[in-house]
Write a structure and sequence with these properties.
Layout lengths: L2 H24 L6 H13 L4 H8 L1
Helix pairs in contact: 1-2, 2-3
Length: 58
């Protein structure tokens, strides 16, 4: 695989991981500690990284 194909595949994976869980987290409830923790987990799983996820959640 070439560099751009790897990048494209990685971004597609990240987009797929982020879209559904984040919609589910905030779909029908208020933002609380539990929903923020779920958001953090989704961001880390989406390759945002621990530092990036913590900055977004805070």
């Amino acid at each position: 695989m070439g560099l751009f194909e790897n990048l494209r595949n990685g971004l597609a994976k990240t987009r797929g991981v982020l879209n559904t869980p984040i919609e589910d987290i905030f779909a029908s409830r208020k933002i609380d500690d539990e929903s923020l923790e779920e958001l953090e987990e989704a961001l880390i799983a989406g390759d945002v990284g621990v530092k990036g996820a913590l900055e977004i959640v805070e």
